[in-house]
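Replying to the earlier thread about multi-chain prediction with a worked example.

Input:
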Amino acid sequence: MTRSDTGRAEAFSDAVIAIVITLLVLELQPPETEPGGLLAALLGQWPTYLAYAASYLYLAVIWLNHKSAFTRIREMDIGLHWSNLGILATLALLPWPTAVIIDTGKTGNLTDERVGVALYAIIGALLCLSWLVFFSHLARHPELTEEEVEDSYFARERPRAAAGVVLYLAAGAVGVLVHPLIASVIFVILPVFYGLTSHGIEHRPTFLRGI
Amino acid sequence: MTRSDTGRAEAFSDAVIAIVITLLVLELQPPETEPGGLLAALLGQWPTYLAYAASYLYLAVIWLNHKSAFTRIREMDIGLHWSNLGILATLALLPWPTAVIIDTGKTGNLTDERVGVALYAIIGALLCLSWLVFFSHLARHPELTEEEVEDSYFARERPRAAAGVVLYLAAGAVGVLVHPLIASVIFVILPVFYGLTSHGIEHRPTFLRGI
Amino acid sequence: MTRSDTGRAEAFSDAVIAIVITLLVLELQPPETEPGGLLAALLGQWPTYLAYAASYLYLAVIWLNHKSAFTRIREMDIGLHWSNLGILATLALLPWPTAVIIDTGKTGNLTDERVGVALYAIIGALLCLSWLVFFSHLARHPELTEEEVEDSYFARERPRAAAGVVLYLAAGAVGVLVHPLIASVIFVILPVFYGLTSHGIEHRPTFLRGI
Amino acid sequence: MTRSDTGRAEAFSDAVIAIVITLLVLELQPPETEPGGLLAALLGQWPTYLAYAASYLYLAVIWLNHKSAFTRIREMDIGLHWSNLGILATLALLPWPTAVIIDTGKTGNLTDERVGVALYAIIGALLCLSWLVFFSHLARHPELTEEEVEDSYFARERPRAAAGVVLYLAAGAVGVLVHPLIASVIFVILPVFYGLTSHGIEHRPTFLRGI
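Result:
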């Protein structure tokens, strides 16, 4: 049996997100050290661990939101496919500015650190923008959603995605104009905040509430 | 429950395309620079960004066409499996000539640039050829397609694939004989053109038209 | 048709575990040698082969346990999703301490070897801890499991996971205080022991017993 | 809905084979050359292209046989899961001796070339052995196969797998005792022969015969 458009888009997205989230963790390598210096070298890598943990959490939140959105989608048109491919393209970019920030942290040049957080802010804003496009398409095409989903459901998801675009750009601006470290802290907090307040997760079936 | 031949071929193809499209994006690395030179280094990489964007678009179009074709396939025989494996083998090759073109662009040797676009043209033509074989097999075996699909459907897909073979080879010839840059521009335009005019996408269910 | 939460979590977990287990094996590279020295170089890599075999076995046991647990799960809530994402995050870390131990084995510095086995013990304990969280969540939420599963089933899985946390930390302590080699041997034995005694495997349908 | 044991084993195997077959092709890199030397460098890599083509064909045949076998499997027990995991472990090893042979071909040391083909022969024999174990398990457990499958079906698959073990070891012996090149040629022919004569492919539904 041929799988439906939704089934294949979900399987394809699962594969893409699984590759990005796994390669992120697999990139951890044993540090090069002089004999006897392993412990210090491992401890000295803590910013890398923090960056990996933050990226893993972010991608996990994205997967949960993706899954949550697709349980409400009955059918896909070509516009929704392209929106989904846009989300996948931008989330696959995330490891790149993450690696740039880790690199600038090592050399400690303030100009480069500003460029690094600006790059991260742009990619983060693009990712929120791709979700905004995705939700807007669904809001304009209620015929694509499951019958039991309220027509206003995906319209109500839009402001949160739009806020994300603004927040990432604002964090980048603060990082460039004030100090890069403030931007880095906001980058870690934003996905946690989005994860905890996710609409898709709040509106789960009644018998699962209060967990 | 064991999945059908179609289901497994789709899942296997999804995994292969997901790996190729994701590793493409993940290959972006922070540039090596002197302190303070990050911004210039990032901006200087623009041909790489363009090449990645073009490759991502191309592979996304291929995935959409693949999905579109398989919604019309009811059953697979060994010939269709091998045609599909041929498509997967050639699309997985795409990052290779892409990387060769990026490399020749960096050194700027005109002889090498001609070789680069010729290689890309050959791989692009092979990819169109593998689709031509795939569509021809389906055109000769209507018993493999879903009942509601017109017998002439896949026969009508053949000229577009055949044109692709000719167009890629012609672009390569122009690149070698006139200037490589012309070929590179055609390589970016071709998949966009194929994406916009895709038969599978035009013939979508009535209620999705006009999106 | 949109896949259920359970279906997507299983597909996503399959993809993550498949990537980790495959990249592990694919990391084997031809050794760099002087002409004529290949045989000696290949034989000299035996600790690497052993480490890969042990890691493959460990991840295979984890996949079997994961599959076994999910045949008993009817529905997922957000807590169970996060527990599952925690298991995936820690199992994807496994190749890292494995590579560290292989590296310390090559240089042969005893201090570094102690750090290596301590790191492995911590990651191994974290992995068992993530299973403990997963089983505890299911034990507290019988409404998530299939009807034919006894309410006490996942509660009875907890002591084995808790024992794993203790055993890994104990092995690490012995490795640091007595000798790292003892810890390495325990790291190879533990997953085999867990594989052979797995609850999920013992309680298989009657007609499959005695295999 | 939780997927059955068979469904998950198929999805997991698809992911592993997709990763191995794709990374194989993706490993092709632009050659490092002096300006103007690209064409010669690309043409000089022909043994690498041949090795990749042969490995791709081999893995494609394995995937087809795997798919073919699983359409006849109704249910999996733990022994069948371990047999399947054994097949996956050995097929993921294939790129390793392939890379070793390519490397020894570059240096051209005859002793190393003998070691290379011997290594390939051992891994090839192990792969056939893992299929032999898989088929034997199914032959002994007819309760695991679909009802319409003859009880003798998997018993009849065993001699071909056993022959593979012998043929790979014989090819390796010829490569070591006579000349490595003879072994390399046999390594390319063997999977083609197995692909063309595959039992699972011969016994396809009547209406697909003669394709």
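Chain D touches chain C at residues 1-5, 8-9, 11-12, 15-16, 19-20, 23, 77-79, 81-82, 85, 88-89, 92-93, 95-96, 99-100, 103-104, 107, 109, 111-112, 115-116, 119, 141, 143 (CB under 8 Å).

Feel free to reuse this layout for your own posts.
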